[in-house]
Design brief:
The chain has helices at 7-10, 31-44, 63-74, 96-107, 122-138, 154-158, 160-164, 176-181, 196-199, 201-216, 232-246, 256-266, 270-285, 300-315, 322-328, and strands spanning 24-28, 49-53, 84-87, 114-116, 147-151, 169-174, 220-223, 250-253, 291-293, 296-298. With 329 residues, the chain is of the alpha/beta class.
Length: 329
């Protein structure tokens, strides 16, 4: 019996595949909240990442102890799914290098990513990534530690395409509140909420530019938080608009009830998942040559689209058809 070629081998020869990561990123600052979030991964499933926050989570003067706490928790049995990263301090803060010197040697093998906030230029981001790489080499960590970069300043938006092209960058995060604040009152505070955050032209332009830069460089674009903590419908609506109107593939959560709303809003439509499974199974039998399905022509271009969709569906907890699950996963 001839072994069928897997889509990851057939469709991306010599190319770097697009990252397939969870559509929700949940922020937690304290040890209590980080532990609670790790417990949620067990109860609702590994459908979201956790960002352990050094920047806003550490009280002034306790930066070292806070980073050490994150290392301890990430190396504990609580971190069953190994789906947690950390946000470090920004470039102007004395603790940013210290964060890296603690997190990388201590948790470099399990750290899902490192998030860099408040960058103001591509040179700044490149310097910080270079330091992460240096510390990793010095400590015998050979894996590439993904880097997420917050685009929340005028300078970062100006350099966003160059930032997205840097080695190790996996995600561009749009930081709404700092970006609005940087406009010195020209953008009203109401634009930190919907519908203003999507309709204000300066914000719509910035979000579209972040998504375009990310996708052009094989990087995941991530949307900002919803400030309304308790209304899941507002979170769902924001996530749906971010996904379908702007092309964001990931969104931040800052309250546990927001997680499911974001995942549900961003998961692929089930009818498209079924079509993707059928098309890929047929294409695999045809050794990835052109096929007809439901009266339409499909080839490697559409196969790539549907393969990424199928992976994203599985990542968000969508049940795949059994034959596709067996063939591809």
């Amino acid at each position: 019996m001839t072994k069928l070629t897997h889509p990851s081998e057939a469709l991306f020869e010599g190319e770097r595949a697009f990252p397939i990561i969870p559509s929700c990123e949940h922020f937690a600052g304290s040890e209590k909240l980080i532990s609670k979030a790790l417990g949620l991964q067990d109860s609702i499933g590994p459908v979201f990442d956790i960002t352990c926050d050094c920047e806003d989570g550490a009280a002034a003067g306790t930066e070292k102890e806070h980073a050490e706490m994150i290392v301890r928790v990430l190396n504990s049995d609580l971190n069953r799914h190994k789906m947690a990263g950390a946000r470090i301090h920004d470039y102007t803060h004395d603790a940013w290098a210290q964060d890296i010197e603690i997190l990388v040697p201590g948790a470099g093998q399990v750290l899902s990513y490192i998030t860099i906030p408040k960058a103001t230029s591509v040179d700044q981001v490149a310097e910080m990534i270079g330091f992460i790489q240096k510390v990793a080499r010095q400590n015998g960590i050979e894996r590439e530690i993904p880097v997420h970069v917050l685009i929340e300043t005028h300078g970062a938006l100006r350099d966003v395409h160059q930032i997205a092209a840097l080695d190790w960058v996996q995600v561009l995060d749009f930081g709404l509140m700092d970006f609005v604040s940087a406009h010195h009152g020209a953008i009203s505070a109401t634009a930190m909420r919907s519908p203003g955050q999507f309709d204000h032209r300066l914000l719509a332009r910035a979000k579209a530019e972040v998504v375009a830069a990310a996708l052009a460089n094989g990087v995941v674009p991530a949307h900002n938080v919803t400030l309304d903590l308790k209304n899941e419908e507002v979170t769902y609506s924001d996530a749906a608009r971010a996904r379908h109107e702007f092309g964001f593939l990931r969104m931040w959560s800052i309250y546990p009830t927001q997680i499911t709303a974001i995942v549900d809003a961003m998961k692929p439509d089930y009818s498209e998942v079924i079509a993707a499974a059928n098309i890929l199974l047929t294409a695999q039998q045809a050794e990835w040559g052109p096929i007809q399905y439901d009266g339409e022509l499909h080839d490697r271009a559409t196969y790539r689209y549907f393969w990424e969709l199928l992976q994203r569906a599985r990542q968000t907890g969508v049940a795949l058809p059994a034959d596709a699950d067996k063939a591809f996963f």
